Amino acid sequence: MGRLPRAVSITVCFALLLGVAACRNASAETTASAESRAGAPARGQPDAASANAALMVQEGRRIFRFDTFGDEAFWTGVLRLHEPLSQVSPRTALAVGLKVDVDALPRKVVAALKAGRVDLDDPAVTLALLEADAVLGVKGVVEGGALRSIGLTCALCHSTVDDSLAPGVGRRLDGWANQDLNVGAIVGLSPNLEAIADLLSKGGTPVDVATVKVVLGSWGPGMYDAELNLDAKGLRPDGKAAATRIPPAFGLAGVNLHTWTGWGSVPYWNAYVAVTQMRGIGTFFDPRLDDAARFPVAAATGLADVRPGPGQEDLVTPKLGALHLYQLSLRSPPAPAGSFDPGAAASGKALFAGKARCATCHVAPLFTEPGWALHTAAEMAIDDFQAQRSPDGRYRTAPLRGLWTHMKRGFYHDGRFGTLAEVVDHYDRNGIGNGGVPLGLDAGEKAALAEYLKSL
């Protein structure tokens, strides 16, 4: 074929370029159309995924704060806890760690509290607070001046307040561990502790009400035993409480295993707590709990496979998605200015990643290990009592962000170390991992490392 004249050649090339451009435009339109069909946002419209996430977070917040999952059937119908709570004064309620949401109170009540005109010794004031939905984590039904029922929500243990109005009264801080909450003292008020004694006795060893009272009384503020109704081990072999610290529920995005001994992810624990601890009406399945040797009460009572009863609606499972997303949206709060020494913290950061070897397990920015973040008690140079109450027999590498918010009750799962200095000393002596070599930190390095931990 001969060469085309120059003019014709230019014309053909121009036409081809126009064709390519047209094809590109058509392709872009086709892609845009496909994206539109797939839910991508049109210009000026909200992203469908973002809009859905926002709605789920909003719903998850409502569930976290106010949903009882139908657990009134247990706390009211079985333990009859509404009876003693109706006689509790606000002063007593605050003393056992219950918190009051100032934003739920009428303005006149806030003004009266500020002026000291509220009788904190009057149980009728407690009923008014419950009626206003102002007590974090407690849903009360007040009719005719009497408390008819109560139910509990996630916020009871995993929210507190900023004390902006008074100690125990302020704005909500969702996800923060309630370090003042004395769950044992509150449950111990029940006029029907026989129900708990009978439950624990199903593990094969008789348990009486007096023993239940001793166990509940051993917990103290900020502590709870989420395995008691699995193995009936109310006390450690050394006679100390078997309860563990209430963990925070913030900073969990990207973190696989939840709580001190792992067990499962965040939605696993939401189902576990809602069904087996709060005693809500829902579904929970974990065949590991059918091990009668390790979990005698769970095996005897069918906790490995819990389903709603005949005619009952599952009030837990449909809410796990939104609840999960809300919890993942709760960021760890930054350490307040002035709460740590910035210069020392900077030195401590270098030690954390280097000589002290903390970052071996506490990998930034999660400050836990991505993946299966579990370790044996020997690797941590501690006893394995609590680890052996879990299916995997190990302890989780706890995330460290927001550590400053839950320092009141000590460190580790059971608060065995009262200060960060004690934690650092423990690892300095024992090293990291099985057969660890002492770290050899001097006093200044230990202090700097503690300042860095406070800054996270």
3D structure, described in words:
This protein is mainly alpha-helical. Among the domains are: about 110 residues, no CATH class; about 110 residues, Cytochrome c-like domain (Cytochrome Bc1 Complex, Chain D, domain 2, Orthogonal Bundle). Helices cover about 40% and strands about 10% of the residues. The chain contains 19 helices and twelve strands. A hairpin with a 2-residue loop joins strand 2 and strand 3. The longest helix has about 30 residues. It is globular and about 65 Å long. The N terminus is likely disordered.
- Sequence of strands across the biggest β-sheet: 1-5
Mean pLDDT: 91
Biggest pleated sheet: 2 strands, parallel
User: In which range does the helix fraction lie?
Assistant: 25-40%
Structural class: mainly alpha
Which regions have little confidence, pLDDT < 50, spanning 5+ residues?
Answer: 1-38
Q: What is the approximate shape?
A: globular
β-sheet strand percentage: 5-15%
Please give the radius of gyration in angstroms: 28 Å
User: What is the annotated CATH architecture of the domain at 342-455?
Assistant: Orthogonal Bundle
Task: Give the count of helical stretches.
Answer: 19
Q: Separation of termini?
A: 75 Å
Task: State the name of the first-level CATH class of the domain at 342-455.
Answer: Mainly Alpha
> Would you count the extended β strands for me?
12
Query: Which fold name corresponds to the CATH topology of the domain at 342-455?
Result: Cytochrome Bc1 Complex, Chain D, domain 2
Key features?
19 helices; globular; 40% helix; two-stranded parallel sheet; 456 residues; mainly alpha; two-stranded antiparallel ribbon; Cytochrome Bc1 Complex, Chain D, domain 2; disordered N terminus
